[in-house]
């Protein structure tokens, strides 16, 4: 009995300097900082969530920034590329905008879609894929980027793998993604019914992974709710893979498992979402702590570096 995911929920990576991360993702790319919290496993460091206006699943890129973190190196067994969807007509706008900021871009073509490739300040490989719909619903419009050019949501992520066979079985038999076209050493797997938010598996043995700034820690897949999540957990166990119990992440509930190619996968619920502790207009404005750390708020705020959020009037005094 298959219980397919509807696609990517979020992608979580490691960054260096938190201000450089904010300036790039909120300032240059125009994503909304929808939540500013701490690493629940290491509350002396931030956890930033970027997304669309309300932080809907499928738009969320999150970072653990550690100032001074050594840059990572790419290789097999990890997520090697994050691809965002924009309308094809917007690629020229982005070429100009990123170029004016000194960011080197290059065009590439894959699966018949033109893409703009570049890296974030920590070397994380990004792409704007010209496969987006021209609609405007839910976009964040406070960053000076016209609605017709704004980033829509994830187009896909790419996993670099020594061998794709075992991972392919997980994405089809556990997650219920549908095998799509092949382009050279890359095959795409799409959510049932088509649409964005799937994964590309790239067979490539070159390089050696060193985890650090610019590395992607894990990718998360959508579950509609807790019942769906438990069904997917059963599918993971049915494949003989280890999986964690359900963990409460305040904005969603999560399970984690490592797929056979080495990439850490999560299944996260769509609910309750990012409006659970801040109103829509205030998303990202306050430092939000989970209940277990609220009593240590003063000590936590004292060690977090001060930041300013581009496109808003939010300037923190944390660390002062
Ligand atoms: Zn996650």
What does this structure look like?
The chain has a single domain, classed as Roll (2,3-Dihydroxybiphenyl 1,2-Dioxygenase, domain 1), CATH 3.10.180.10. Helices cover 17% and strands 35% of the residues. Strand 15 and strand 16 form a beta hairpin. The longest helix has 13 residues. 42% of the residues are buried. Bound molecules: zinc ion. Zinc ion binds next to strand 1 and strand 13.
Number of domains: 1
| Biggest beta sheet summary | 9 strands, mixed
What's the CATH architecture? Roll
Helix percentage = 10-25%
User: What is the end-to-end distance?
Assistant: 55 Å
The total of beta strands comes to 17
Q: List low-confidence stretches.
A: none
Question: pLDDT average, as an integer?
Answer: 94
Distinct small molecules: zinc ion
Number of helices, where a helix is a run of at least 4 consecutive DSSP H or I residues: 6
Gross morphology:
globular
Structural class: alpha/beta
Draw up the topology in text:
Layout lengths: L7 E8 L2 H11 L3 E8 L2 E10 L8 E6 L12 E8 L5 H10 L5 E5 L2 E7 L5 E5 L23 E9 L3 H10 L3 E6 L2 E5 L7 E6 L12 E8 L2 H13 L8 E2 L3 E7 L5 E9 L14 E2 L2 H4 L2 H7 L17
Parallel strand pairs: 1-4, 2-17, 5-8, 9-12, 13-16
Antiparallel strand pairs: 1-13, 2-3, 3-4, 5-9, 6-7, 7-8, 10-11, 11-12, 14-15, 15-16
This protein binds zinc ion.
Zinc ion binds next to strand 1 and strand 13.
């Amino acid at each position: 009995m298959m219980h397919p995911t509807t696609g990517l929920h979020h992608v979580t990576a490691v960054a260096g300097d938190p201000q450089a991360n904010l300036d790039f993702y909120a300032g240059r790319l125009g994503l909304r900082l929808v939540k500013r919290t701490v690493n629940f496993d290491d509350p002396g460091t931030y956890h930033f969530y970027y997304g669309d206006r309300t932080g809907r699943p499928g738009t969320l890129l999150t970072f653990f920034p550690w100032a001074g973190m050594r840059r990572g190196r790419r290789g097999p067994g990890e997520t090697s590329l994050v691809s965002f969807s924009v309308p094809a007509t917007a690629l020229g706008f982005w070429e100009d905008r990123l170029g004016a900021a000194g960011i080197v871009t290059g065009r590439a073509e894959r699966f018949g879609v033109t893409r703009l490739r570049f890296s974030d300040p920590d070397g994380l490989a990004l792409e704007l894929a010209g496969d987006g719909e021209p609609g405007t619903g839910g976009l964040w419009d406070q960053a000076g980027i016209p609605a017709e050019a704004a980033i829509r949501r994830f187009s896909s992520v790419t996993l670099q793998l020594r061998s794709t066979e075992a991972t392919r079985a997980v994405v089809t038999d556990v997650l219920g993604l549908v095998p799509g076209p092949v382009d050279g050493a890359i095959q795409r797997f799409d959510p049932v019914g088509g649409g964005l938010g799937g994964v590309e598996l790239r067979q490539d043995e070159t390089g050696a992974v060193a985890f650090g700034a610019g590395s992607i820690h894990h990718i998360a897949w959508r579950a509609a709710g807790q019942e769906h999540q438990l069904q997917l957990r059963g599918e993971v166990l049915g494949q003989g893979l280890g999986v964690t119990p359900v963990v409460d992440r305040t904005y969603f509930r999560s399970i984690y498992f490592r797929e056979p190619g080495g990439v850490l996968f999560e299944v996260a619920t769509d609910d309750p979402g990012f409006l659970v502790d801040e109103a829509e207009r205030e998303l990202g404005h306050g430092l939000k702590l989970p209940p277990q750390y609220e009593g240590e708020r003063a000590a936590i705020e004292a060690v977090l570096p001060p930041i300013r959020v581009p496109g808003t009037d939010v300037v923190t005094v944390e660390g002062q």
